[in-house]
User: What shape does this take?
Amino acid sequence: MTVARDAVMTVKELETFLAAEFPQAFGPGRAHHVERVGLKTATVRLDADESHLRPGGTISGPAMMALADVAVYVALLAQIGPVALAVTTNLSINFLRKPAPGPLFGDARIIKLGKRLAVGEVGIRGPGDDELVAHCVATYSIPDRPKA
Assistant: This one.
């Protein structure tokens, strides 16, 4: 478990927050798990099961899009803190090759963090594999935050 010196939330804090605020993805028995956070980065694991497969036995595009979206959200929250209402305003994904059934990892990186918008990218890969199965770019809108 890695936390960068400027990350404001740890993996444990993120998982607790996400289970409470986003139980559809992170509640008990759900498929998404925060693996690590770092300097504007995060890795989220999708434990893909039969419900994530499409005809042909590969992981579906919507499942990979959800993984990418969640990974950018986690990377963003690790930097700005527990802002539940940060929302996706744009998401573009390129599917590069068919993933095998099983776990997938979304390696997210925030490439621009402003007061109102954040842009991140995600490489999706299988376990122990550096070759991407998908690449995503996403933009998040950050709501006004109370002044400290």
